[in-house]
């Protein structure tokens, strides 16, 4: 009696991903991106275009119109199918279009940092400061609390809660310090790499 596998090359039996319940890494799979969009007509369509242009197959869109981010933008979650290579191209294309990508697949902002900025925050355009922190791609602004006890014309302070990618806390703090220095603001940041 001979085995049914006799005469067949061993790799032919083992190379079928479905044979052992495995997954073909080049096959399309479901991906999720969380975006932050400006509340203006056409922004959702502009965010979906790079996904379609780069081979993504849209599955669902969750548009949180009534829920705004700390910067007054609208969070949108998009699920789509794409191969791993196309997924990377889609994320790059979204960022190239100036769309804020809050989360892409398993890429999450895993570390929280709380900073305090002091100075003429209103006069130096707080919205611009927050936008530039977001554009640094090392961190996302999760929460902002502004205090201006003497009015907007005087020195004010803002507590920022940032979410940084795992291992990129130092880069996020450095980006904030660079922006603050340019705008003549002071930064109080946690000490990096120090155990409490």
UniProtKB/TrEMBL annotation:
CDD domains hit by this protein: ACT_ThrD-II-like
Region (Disordered): 1-30
Entry superkingdom: Archaea
Domain ACT: 32-108
Protein name: Amino acid-binding protein
Organism name: Halorubrum halodurans
High-level lineage: Archaea, Methanobacteriati, Methanobacteriota, Stenosarchaea group, Halobacteria
């Amino acid at each position: 009696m001979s085995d049914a596998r006799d005469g067949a090359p061993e790799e032919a039996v083992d190379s079928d991903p479905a044979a052992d319940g495995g997954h073909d890494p080049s096959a399309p799979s479901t991906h999720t991106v969380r975006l932050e969009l400006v509340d203006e007509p056409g922004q959702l369509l502009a965010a979906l275009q790079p996904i379609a242009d780069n081979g993504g197959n849209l599955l669902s869109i969750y548009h949180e119109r009534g829920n705004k981010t700390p910067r007054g933008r609208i969070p949108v979650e998009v699920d789509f199918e794409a191969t791993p290579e196309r997924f990377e191209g889609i994320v790059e294309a979204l960022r190239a279009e100036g769309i804020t990508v809050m989360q892409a697949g398993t890429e999450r902002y895993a570390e929280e940092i709380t900073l305090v900025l002091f100075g003429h925050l209103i006069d130096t355009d707080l919205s611009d400061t927050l936008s530039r922190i977001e554009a640094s791609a090392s961190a996302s602004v999760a929460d902002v609390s502004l205090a201006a006890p003497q009015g907007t014309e005087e020195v004010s302070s803002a507590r920022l809660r940032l979410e940084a990618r795992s291992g990129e806390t130092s880069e996020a703090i450095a980006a904030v310090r660079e922006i603050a220095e340019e705008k003549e603001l002071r930064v109080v940041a946690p000490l990096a790499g120090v155990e409490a």
